[in-house]
Write a structure and sequence with these properties.
Blueprint (H helix, E strand, L loop, with lengths): L9 H7 L11 H8 L12 E5 L10 H11 L3 E3 L2 H9 L4 H10 L3 E2 L13 H20 L4 E4 L12 H18 L2 E5 L10 H10 L7 E4 H6 L15 E6 L26 H10 L5 E4 L11 H21 L4
Parallel strand pairs: 1-2, 1-8, 2-3, 4-5, 5-6, 6-7, 7-8
Helix pairs in contact: 6-7, 7-8, 10-11
């Protein structure tokens, strides 16, 4: 890949700072003032709280039961994996039934997780990935949702792709999504050969030139990919709708840490207070979605996992934001 795919020129930065994706440094002070919360306000109201169903997948609940659990525990939304939706349909379920269930329980579909190979160089594989994304976006629209993840599926391993081509493909995805009312969120994977860093996501978001361009970031993946949390400051919170919440231990080292090492927020060494304050400062008012893969949690009661996850996110937000309000 040429270096031109990675490096922003001064002219490029100044030209895109006003697009809504990038926040100029001088804008942070006013953003902070606008996002400030009074000492009497509940700090948890700054964000919504969502359950990514990966967190409880080892308990093998049906999707309707996961919806019921999330509502019962007190989440604002749910982030299902599309293969769960597919399994539900294969068993004769109807999306209209799920939509009613969600509505009756006052639960929103914040996003959804799928793995279409939309960004790869192989034309046939990429075409299949686009077809899969279209099908899954149709499902999300029928459920009343309007967002879906667009990760670097199929491009986890080398070769390294030209980010300009990735940006072109992402723009195509966004056009399709715009026609369906569902926005693909560019997702980074920290251990991937492609789209592993905040800077790479920023390049694609800007280069694609689409007004709906947005990103899906994750505490674990920011760390695993080697990005510094301060890098979040250049993003506009309006271009972030969902943020994956988790924590990680100090050992194993960054280069060897795995998804299965993730722990509940507050039980590791991640700079959650710093991250949450930055999100608040840049104007992010979306959903914090709990996404864990720790096999140890499969030994716990499913409601315990879901409840502990929600409480840990709320506590992390309270710790991060209330300390500044005294």
């Amino acid at each position: 890949m040429g270096t031109s795919s990675h490096i922003f020129s001064r002219r490029t930065f100044l030209g895109v700072a006003g697009t809504g994706l990038i926040v100029p440094p001088m804008a942070l002070t006013s953003s902070q003032a606008q996002a400030g919360t009074s000492a009497t306000e509940d700090t948890s109201s700054v964000f919504r709280f969502c359950l990514n169903t990966a967190t409880i997948r080892s308990h093998k609940l049906s999707l309707p039961d996961e919806i019921d659990l999330a509502a019962r525990v007190g989440y604002d939304g749910i982030e299902p994996w599309t293969r769960e939706i597919d399994e539900f349909l294969q068993r004769g379920g109807k999306l209209g039934e799920l939509r009613k269930r969600l509505r009756d329980r006052n639960l929103r579909v914040e996003s959804a997780i799928g793995f279409p190979t939309w960004m790869v160089d192989d034309d046939a594989q990429r075409a299949r990935g686009f077809d899969q994304m279209k099908r899954e976006m149709e499902w999300i629209a029928e459920l009343g949702g309007n967002r879906i993840a667009a990760p670097p599926a199929g491009a986890y391993n080398p070769p390294v792709l030209d980010l300009k081509r990735v940006a072109e493909r992402y723009a195509q995805l966004l056009e399709i999504g715009q026609s369906m009312g569902v926005t693909p969120q560019l997702e980074i994977w920290g251990g991937s050969a492609n789209l592993s860093r905040l800077s790479e996501a920023a390049f694609v978001l800007v280069e694609c030139g689409h007004p709906d361009a947005c990103a899906l970031f994750d505490v674990f993946h920011i760390y695993r990919g080697g990005s510094r949390p301060e890098g979040l400051r250049v993003f506009n919170g309006a271009a972030l709708h969902v943020f994956h919440m988790n924590d990680y231990p100090g050992d194993p080292p960054r280069e060897k840490i795995r998804d299965s090492d993730r722990v509940f927020p507050g039980e590791g060494v991640a700079p959650l207070t710093q991250i949450l304050r930055i999100l608040r400062d840049i104007g992010f008012h979306g959903a914090l979605s709990l996404e864990l893969f720790n096999p140890q949690y499969a030994k716990m009661e499913v409601e315990t996992v879901a409840r502990r996850g929600l409480e840990s996110m709320r506590e992390a937000v309270k710790k991060a934001l209330s300390a500044e309000m005294g």
